[in-house]
Amino acid sequence: MWRLPGWRRPRFQPARRLALPFTLGTTLLLLAVPALLLRQRPRPQAFGLEKLMASVSLLQSFRATPERPVPELWRQRLGEVLAARLWRAQTRAWWQFWDGIAPGQPFLALSSRGIALSSLQSLPVPPLRVGDLLILPPDPLSRQLLSDRLRVQVRPSPGLRQRCLPRLERDQAVFWRPTALGEMLGPLAPFLQDVQEGCLSLGLRPDGLTWTGEAASVEGMLLEAPAAGDNPATVPPLKPSIEAPLLLVEGTSLERLLAGLLARELIRQPLAERWGFGKAQLA
What whole-number distance in Å separates Cα of residue 58 and Cα of residue 178? Predict the structure, then answer.
């Protein structure tokens, strides 16, 4: 067989194997870094909801139900024709909320995915863009006030609000703050000091409705006991009468109710001055 001068058969060299720990570590690093970056940078929709939760008093979420009639709120904010078209095409949750500024006037919030912004140009009040949400206010003044409040930087909350985000994104849920509780309950709001802020999901079962979620008190809502003054009471204390009690409450778990009731100075002062209740009894 004819060969070129100086030609040699190349020697076969087996491929070098990479160290398994190095390969595994590199793979984990390539997977962990993007996941960490995505965790630090929340989804646009979650960012929009988190901004709203820090600014509004009551926020409700609803699942997409295009087979049902168009809600009145949609018709008011979008008009009959546009509301009907967007309602039939919806595939994501939508929200309504109150900001505590315009009494009785809810805002409408929609996911901006699949909605052409050009179709909203004819609306009398332009929508606000917050993350991946389109906010439809009731009037120009409410739009301006909400826009000013949303400009405040919101730090991610690791507590109740952060855990509430998945409920508001996928369930029929409600989130409230102390301002909403005060508007709904009025004078009864102090009785519910432990549920000043909360988040609940609504579930439908054959035997009825179920609510699941959590609530918490807000720091600073409970009032401190008033300091004893130097002047003695003008009315001599009266001993509580067992035959004619001032207030009779029976139950197995009354701590939350009494904590809110006794936190009000309007209740504490007559009990101390008129009925002789001491600090230990009012604690």
Answer: 9
Inter-residue contact 251 to 231 (CB < 8 Å): no
Angle between helices 265-273 and 255-262 (to 10 degrees): 80
For helices 160-170 and 44-53, angle between their N-to-C axes, nearest 10 degrees: 120
Cα 263-199-146 angle, rounded to 5 deg: 90
Q: Out of 216, 239, 265, pick the residue that ends a domain.
A: 216
pLDDT reading at 99 higher than 60? yes
Does residue 198 share a domain with residue 124? yes
At residue 123, the pLDDT reads: 94
What pLDDT score was predicted for residue 133? 94
Is the alpha carbon torsion for 226, 182, 107, 143 positive or negative?
negative
Instruction: Please give the structure tokens belonging to residue 206.
Output: 């054959």
Q: What is the span of the domain harbouring residue 212?
A: 44-216
Could you tell me the pTM of the whole model? Answer: 0.64
